[in-house]
Amino acid sequence: MNPSLLTLVQWLSPAFPVGSFAYSHGLEWAMDAGRIRTAAGLQTWLEAVLADGAGRSDAILLARAMDGGDPAPLVALAEALAPSRERAQEAMEQGAAFLRTTNALNGGDWPPMPLPVAVGVAARALALPAAEVAALYLQAFAGALVQAAVRFLPLGQTDGQRVLAALHPVILTLAAEAATAPLDAIGSAAFGSDLASLHHETMETRIFRT
Predict the structure, then answer these.
(1) Does a structural domain hold residue 14?
(2) d(CA 132, CA 25)
(3) What is the pLDDT of residues 140-180, one digit of tens each?
(4) Domain limits at 31?
(5) DSSP class per residue in the chain
(6) Does residue 30 lie in a domain region?
(7) Which pTM value belongs to this model?
């Protein structure tokens, strides 16, 4: 096995200290408002987030960050793409935490940047295919949201894992496309998820930070 693959799996595991458990990407509001009540509803929501929302954009940003060069334009684009204050906070806080740890492990000195760009620049040293890195990134992203739903809804761990497994075809397709997609292919149409992140900012009682 390629040792770099193990490194990537470690970086994207729930044990890596980025605090992904604290963020719901607006999912908490959608569940609280009754927009998502079942495993089927959760799967539909996450498919839209991946294929038409932040999942697709993040995968392209990550792949282009792996190409090399100054990541500053990608950082600016990632920040501009955030549809709400909380979504910008989610990406930047997790990215900063990710790079603090990878810098400490590898002797790097990358400054804070949004998570998909952070993973992309760190992954340059792994010499792995961009599609493989993007697929595991999207798997980790979807897995964190599934776990958020398991904690909030009357949804068992087994049903949560069924939802995550059902998302694999979408993840693999997106990762393959992102590997070669130009930046001008980025676009988002997951309006329900974007609006949920805006509504989440106004919730009086909440479990998650976003």
Answers:
(1) no
(2) 23
(3) 999 999 999 999 999 999 999 999 999 999 999 999 999 99
(4) 20-200
(5) --HHHHHHHHHTSTTSTT-GGG--TTHHHHHHTTS--SHHHHHHHHHHHHHHSHHHHHHHHHHHHTT-S--HHHHHHHHHH--SHHHHHHHHHHHHHHHHHHHHHHT--PPP--HHHHHHHHHGGGT--HHHHHHHHHHHHHHHHHHHHHHHSS--HHHHHHHHHHTHHHHHHHHHHHTT--GGG-----HHHHHHHHHHTT-SS-SS--
(6) yes
(7) 0.97
Write down how long the chain is: 210
What is the Cα–Cα distance from 183 to 28, expressed in whole angstroms? 30
| Domain total of the chain | 1
Structure-token match 């992102």, residue found: 178
Instruction: Check: CB of residue 85 under 8 Å from CB of residue 60.
Output: no
Q: Are 190 and 49 in contact (CB under 8 A)?
A: yes
Q: Is residue 1 part of a domain?
A: no
**How far is 145 from 91, CA to CA, in rounded Å?**
14
Tell me the CATH number at 53. 1.10.4190.10
